[in-house]
């Protein structure tokens, strides 16, 4: 398939990249489209260094444009006629430098290949993920086969024990009969003893076979426990860590419960087999009886495997969380929180019989208040699992006593101190008693809501990077985060809050903000201090979280629809808009105003040069009064003839504004239905923009939005009463251009 045809069939995100590529003047997209077959067949690399060959291609290019022009004349395509004629005139500047034209076209073709390469890579990753899911399915199927094999072996052992008992009964009957008959005939007596000896030998071989098969069952079981405890459970714990910070990972425990229960049932049956062997030995035994020699070791091994399985089977299914918190694992003193534990070995006879007690570590001393003891039961779980759901716990810090810093003298802030909540119970069934303990993931405990943002940053950092879920001194020597892992975590925040994560372009802007311009960010790392601990009041996390909360609260629908470009630098914004028709605008987040969003649009000034305009960012204070789509809908400026006009016409790249936002409009009149709400900022912003434009252009470049028109003070005396105009007044009296 031709390169151009492949490009046109790409998903929208890559079509967008193609539009951005051909926003440049070097090669118009119309020329690339209508001459695509010819362009792709030429040796542009040779033409870039061979002047005579470049001249030939240049002349053929002009001839092809003439042919296209004639075609459009016949088709009466007036606009295309005009465009092709203009493109041919523009190409005349290469008359003396045809090699330069060849180099330009070659550059565009190479950039196209890069876009195709990115799309192919994304498709490969997609297939890789499918393959990974297939691998996981294969792994689960293999585990299921081993489980079925274990169940089959246990059933065979059950049959073997029955056969052993029958053999022993036969021997015992004949032996007792022989004793009672008191046979005098020596020949007959020897014959009976010979028969009894054969029965004993057969009984001995059967016992040896059973003991050997029991060892094989325990070997099989040990392999399964290793898979469950050291692989499946560890992977689930890691998925739970990631899910706590927004990852869309599956943390359902039903399958694990099925596997754990199946293995536990098998081991309890092995214990029953061993008890049966002990009973049989009590009835019939002999010299060098293998059961007497091997049963104790088998019993010890069986109990050890069962204890290992049970201790791993007690988990925290739902991590501690407050109802109104930013996320799980951030707890506040004197505020209720909930947490749920679960026993993955499900025996209905234990329903309501295992009491779970809650306690805290001694790092800092807290009293756990509320219902601190609950029985594991199947009533509080939708899937019927054995759970203890603690819904009304609170923490209260002890003010007296020698609590101090506890186990560590390392100086950590309150939001870097990590604590574990422990849960203890006793498993007692069929003569086996095992003390079980599990604990939560580390929690951060705060005393007021102002610490919540910083505390959540700690939870994000820990669960993104820590491989040890009990490492409470993690922040004493905190590792840096590799950019790929860090960027993925940021995307999860948006995905969890709005159901739409960050795309590659948005992540690249964030990476540029953190590391500056790089050819590849994969090897870059973000330090904990850079993320959340710098002395500056506005750390990266404060900036990012401010945007996230604004989007979640006021802009979630627009974000999910992909109407907000969001994370884009001012320079990139200008380069995108300057190639677009008048009235094209985009929405981006402020780089300097915490939790701010602004819009910029392109206009054509008298000289014909495109000019990009930007308004001061809107914050949650503005959006709580007027929806953002209504601001965009009703934003107006006065043209020279005092005709009100909304300069926002097309959402980038070329979607008519009403088509993009129409379904969100409150009504069809164009007037926001709450005229009593003031929006002084919009008036001030518009006037500031027009009045301060020349001043801004004279300022030295800055990386922040402040240098681009954000955060300006009102000018021309527009403050006081004028700054207090209502939204209805603004619509009636649009801002006039200076």
TrEMBL record:
Pfam families: SH2, STAT_alpha, STAT_bind, STAT_int, STAT_linker. The keyword Acyltransferase does not apply. One of its GO terms (cellular component) is cytoplasm. Its main location: cytoplasm. It comes from the Eukaryota. Residues 559-683 form the SH2 domain. It is found in: Cytoplasm; Nucleus. Transmembrane segments: none annotated. GO terms for biological process: signal transduction. Signal peptide: none annotated. Residues 140-167 form a coiled coil. Keywords: Activator, Coiled coil, Cytoplasm, DNA-binding, Nucleus, Phosphoprotein, SH2 domain, Transcription, Transcription regulation. InterPro entries: p53-like_TF_DNA-bd_sf, SH2, SH2_dom_sf, STAT, STAT_linker, STAT_N_sf, STAT_TF_alpha, STAT_TF_CC. One of its GO terms (molecular function) is DNA binding. PANTHER family: SIGNAL TRANSDUCER AND ACTIVATOR OF TRANSCRIPTION (PTHR11801). Belongs to the transcription factor STAT family. This is Signal transducer and activator of transcription. It comes from Stegastes partitus.
């Amino acid at each position: 398939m031709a390169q151009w045809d492949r490009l046109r069939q790409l998903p929208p995100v890559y079509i967008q990249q193609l539009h951005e590529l051909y926003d440049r003047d070097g090669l118009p997209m119309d020329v690339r489209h209508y001459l695509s077959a010819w362009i792709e067949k030429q040796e542009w690399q040779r033409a870039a260094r061979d002047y005579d060959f470049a001249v030939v291609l240049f002349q053929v290019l002009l001839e092809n444009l003439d042919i296209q022009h004639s075609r459009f004349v016949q088709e009466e395509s007036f606009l295309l006629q005009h465009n092709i004629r203009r493109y041919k005139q523009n190409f005349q500047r290469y008359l003396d430098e045809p090699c330069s034209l060849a180099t330009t076209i070659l550059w565009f073709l190479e950039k196209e290949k890069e876009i195709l390469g990115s799309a192919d890579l994304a498709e490969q990753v997609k297939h890789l993920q499918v393959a990974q899911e297939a691998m996981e399915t294969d792994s689960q199927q293999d585990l299921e086969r081993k489980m079925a094999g274990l169940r089959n072996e246990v059933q065979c052992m059950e049959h073997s024990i029955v056969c052993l008992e029958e053999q022993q009964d036969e021997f015992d009957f004949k032996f007792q009969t022989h004793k009672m008959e008191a046979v005098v005939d020596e020949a007959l007596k020897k014959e009976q003893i010979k028969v009894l000896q054969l029965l004993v030998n057969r009984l001995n071989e059967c016992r040896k076979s059973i003991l050997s098969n029991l060892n094989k069952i325990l070997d099989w079981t040990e392999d399964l426990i290793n898979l469950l405890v050291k692989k499946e459970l560890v992977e689930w714990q890691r998925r739970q860590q990631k899910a706590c910070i927004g990852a869309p990972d599956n943390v359902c425990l039903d399958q694990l419960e099925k596997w754990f229960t199946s293995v536990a049932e098998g081991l309890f049956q092995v214990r029953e087999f061993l008890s049966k062997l002990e009973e049989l030995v009590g009835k019939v035994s002999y010299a060098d009886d293998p059961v007497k020699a091997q049963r104790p070791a088998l019993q010890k091994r069986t109990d050890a495997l069962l204890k290992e399985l049970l201790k791993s089977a007690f988990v925290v299914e739902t991590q501690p969380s407050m109802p109104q918190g930013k996320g799980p694992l951030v707890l506040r003193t004197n505020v209720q929180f909930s947490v749920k534990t679960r026993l993955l070995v499900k025996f209905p006879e234990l329903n309501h019989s295992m009491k779970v007690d809650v306690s805290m570590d001694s790092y800092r001393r807290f009293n756990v208040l509320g219902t601190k003891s609950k029985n594991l039961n199947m009533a509080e779980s939708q899937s019927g699992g054995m759970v203890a759901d603690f819904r009304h716990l609170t923490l209260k810090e002890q003010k007296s006593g020698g609590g101090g810093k506890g186990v560590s003298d390392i100086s950590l802030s309150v939001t870097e101190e990590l604590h574990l909540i422990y849960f203890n119970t006793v498993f007692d069934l069929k003569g086996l008693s095992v003390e079980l303990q599990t604990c939560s993931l580390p929690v951060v405990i705060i005393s007021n809501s102002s610490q919540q943002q910083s505390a959540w940053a700690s939870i994000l950092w820990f669960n993104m990077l820590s491989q040890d879920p009990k490492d409470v001194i993690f922040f004493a020597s905190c590792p840096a985060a590799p950019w790929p892992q860090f960027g993925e975590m940021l995307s999860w925040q948006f995905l969890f809050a709005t159901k739409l994560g960050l795309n590659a372009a948005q992540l690249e802007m964030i990476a540029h903000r953190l590391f500056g311009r790089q050819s590849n960010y994969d090897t870059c790392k973000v330090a904990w201090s850079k993320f959340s601990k710098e002395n500056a009041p506005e750390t990266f996390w404060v900036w990012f979280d401010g945007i996230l909360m604004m989007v979640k609260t006021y802009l979630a629908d627009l974000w999910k629809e992909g109407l907000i470009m969001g994370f884009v630098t001012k320079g990139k914004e200008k380069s995108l808009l300057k190639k677009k028709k008048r009235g094209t605008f985009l929405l981006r987040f402020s780089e300097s105003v915490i939790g701010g969003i602004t819009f910029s649009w392109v206009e054509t000034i008298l000289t014909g040069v495109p000019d990009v305009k930007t308004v001061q960012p809107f914050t949650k204070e503005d959006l709580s009064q007027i929806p953002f789509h209504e601001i965009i809908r009703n934003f107006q400026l006065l043209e020279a003839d005092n005709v009100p006009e909304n300069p926002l016409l097309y959402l980038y790249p070329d979607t008519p504004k009403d088509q993009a936002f129409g379904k969100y409009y409150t009504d069809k009149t164009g007037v926001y239905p709450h005229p009593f709400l003031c929006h002084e900022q919009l008036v001030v912003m518009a006037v500031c923009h027009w009045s301060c434009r020349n001043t801004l252009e004279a300022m030295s470049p800055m990386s922040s939005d402040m240098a681009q028109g954000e955060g300006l003070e009102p000018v021309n005396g527009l403050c006081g009463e004028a700054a207090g105009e209502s939204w209805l007044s603004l619509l009636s009296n649009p801002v006039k251009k200076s």
